[in-house]
Amino acid sequence: MDEPLVPVESIELAWTGIDHAEGLAVDADGTVWAGGEEGQVYRGRLDEEPREIVRLPGRTLGFAVDGQGNAYCATISEPGLFRVTPEGDVALISAGTPERRTAEPNYPAFLPSGFLLFSDSGTWGADDGCIFIVTPDGESRVADTSASRFPNGLAVLDGGRTLAVVESNLPGVSLLSVGKDGSLGDRRVLVQMPGTVPDGLALDARGRLLVSCWAPDAVFVLEPHGRLRLLVHDPHRFVLHEPTNIAFLPGTSRLVAANYGERFLSIFDHDTEGVPPPRPSFRWSG
Questions:
Q1: What are phi and psi for residue 282, nearest 5 degrees?
Q2: Cβ within 8 Å of residue 273, ≥6 positions away
Q3: Residue 181 CB partners (closer than 8 Å, separation 6+)
Q4: 188 three-class SS
Q5: How many helices (H) and strands (E) does the chain have?
Q6: How crowded is residue 157: how many other Cβ atoms within 10 Å of its Cβ?
């Protein structure tokens, strides 16, 4: 493995004691949301102790945040996508469609147009995953079944015209074209990552995707010419252990990583600021 760009000695820890967070998201004001293995939803600033504001039914996976500061969280014990307000009020946003119920909801992401997408990974090895779309009026439908190899982390590119999708069992990252109505299609493989299990995505200001991995304990940078560079790696798992999801702190080059294999968040620096994910108004009325 290449020498990492970020030395492991520079990684800082925060929120020590949380319960094996897999997903996290950061609001526009720097408020961090993260989940726990028993459905905990944590919220707070990194320089403070997190507050557990609610428990959802089952292990929490990915998070996204809307323009009102509400978080959207996927859970798998009672598979669905939930909205959680900063006060801890909970609403089930989607459990799929009558024809196709959610199996393993994994990672939500907003389009700038206001549609909410989320990956449903399906069963490992069965290549039966899909991506759902939820409209503000509460309708859910299947948006894509072509990126089916355990679809996981999502990132919105090109001002909402392209969706990057981690397919953990490819393993690698695929791209989908996004229509004005939120429709997805024209799948093409962007990069393959043999010997890894990629999980989460973030976007930097130079247009590079950062890919966090369940295995190895590493985050990669995908350069525009297609080369994967190792950003950070902890072979001893002391400060980075199964870093499944990552997010930039607003207006900075600092990244926060959730560690599914440990009880803390990791903080480290990239060489470029992050691009905030779309956070549109989503006045859901299901």
A1: -135, 80
A2: 204, 205, 248, 251, 252, 253
A3: none
A4: strand
A5: 0, 24
A6: 17
DSSP, residue by residue, 211-228: EEEEESSEEEEE-TTS-E
Q: Which two tokens stand for residue 230?
A: 């190792």
Q: Report the C-alpha gap between 250 and 26 in whole angstroms.
A: 8
Query: pLDDT tens across 95-150, in order?
Result: 999 999 999 999 999 999 999 999 999 999 999 999 999 998 889 999 999 999 99
pTM for the structure as a whole = 0.96
Amino acid at 163: L
Query: Which position has the token pair 């800082």?
Result: 12
Cα gap 200→89, rounded to integer Å: 26
Residue 223 in contact with residue 204, Cβ under 8 Å?
Answer: no
Give start and end residues of each alpha helix (H) in the chain: none
User: 14-45, pLDDT tens digit by residue?
Assistant: 999 999 999 999 999 999 999 999 999 999 99
pLDDT band at 286 (very low <50, low <70, confident <90, very high): low
Domains of the chain: 8-269 (2.120.10.30)
- Distance of CA 8 to CAs 20, 55, 219, 230, Å? 20, 33, 12, 12
Cβ atoms within 10 Å of 220's Cβ, excluding its own = 26
DSSP letter, residue 96: B
Q: Are 193 and 259 in contact (CB under 8 A)?
A: no
For the record, the structure tokens of 130 come out as: 């899909």
Backbone angles phi, psi at 251, to 5 degrees: 70, 15
**CA–centroid distance for 176 within its chain:** 17
Residues pairing with 219 in the sheet: 212, 232
Q: What is the largest CA-CA distance in the chain?
A: 50
